[in-house]
Amino acid sequence: MNSGHIPTVELNNGVAMPRLGFGVFQVPNEETEAAVSEALRAGYRAIDTAKAYGNEPGVASALRASGVAREDLFVTTKLWNNDHGHDRALHAFDTSLRLLGLDYLDLYLIHWPAPSSDRYVETWRALVSLLAGGRVRAVGVSNFQPAHLRRIVAETGTVPSVNQVELHPYLQQAELRELHAELGVVTEAWSPLAKGGELLADPVVGEVARRHARTPAQVVLRWHLQLGNVVIPKSVTPARIRENLDVFGFALGEDDMAAIGTLDQGLRTGPDPDHFG
Ligand SMILES: NC(=O)C1=CN([C@@H]2O[C@H](COP(=O)(O)OP(=O)(O)OC[C@H]3O[C@@H](n4cnc5c(N)ncnc54)[C@H](OP(=O)(O)O)[C@@H]3O)[C@@H](O)[C@H]2O)C=CC1
Ligand SMILES: O=C(O)C(=O)[C@@H](O)[C@H](O)C(=O)CO
Description:
By secondary structure, this protein is of the alpha/beta class. Helices cover 41% and strands 15% of the residues. The strands form 2 sheets. It has an 8-stranded parallel sheet. A two-stranded antiparallel ribbon has the order 1-2.
């Protein structure tokens, strides 16, 4: 793919994935075309949506209107908790692909392990069969804890390309990142800005930002990139959409990385994957 000036990471099946993409959680469908169009004009090429967001049609409209070649886009969507199970998963995939107006997807993820229904292994087998069918270029999981990851690998022998998890300076996920490195799974950070709240006003982040003459959001995104994470910040504000992409022209020093490294509080802004779904 030609991802412009956005660097890519090579997934475990050789597919190139942009290291920075655009998230659309909580963007109403009727506002999604405008937001994604703005992102594509700014230079983003990866879009992260989900069936549960209800905005796959809005993403489709923006992709269609953009004129960007399909092979230069990287589109991710996710299978929701009530679609676990082999047949339901295959059906959910077809529905998402149709709503996105695509004939193939770049990355399909199991959104949550939903351990109470205990069907994520069967669901994972369905995604592996979709991969073999050629209508998706890579498959992965989201919100999988170490035990969930180890189990699907042990029971199916197929390692997900990506695990998309909540990750930001207040929730640094060291254990999971180590396991990903051991297995060859790419770590993708959701809510990379911790939803834009307190973290961006944190004095430690503010001081690093001041030293680099950058914004707190840019410093946090840079911290992720230097840790090796893929990031998918969301914004519906055109200036922020551009700001969040402008993170490839500077680098944090070891002291900056260490300072941000002290901020871990194990703080989740979203549900606990062991007890959700
Ligand atoms: N797999 C999963 O379970 C989950 C996946 N995700 C994915 O991750 C993406 C990102 O996570 P999300 O929860 O949206 O949170 P983010 O951490 O991306 O933060 C988004 C919030 O930060 C604000 N913001 C964005 N950029 C800036 C900036 N430069 N300066 C100040 N504020 C800023 C936005 O405001 P505004 O829009 O008003 O500009 C918005 O309120 C989602 O959109 C979704 O695609 C998210 C949650 C769970
Ligand atoms: O945004 C997502 O992708 C999510 O899965 C979460 O928002 C999750 O659905 C949630 O926060 C439910 O309260």
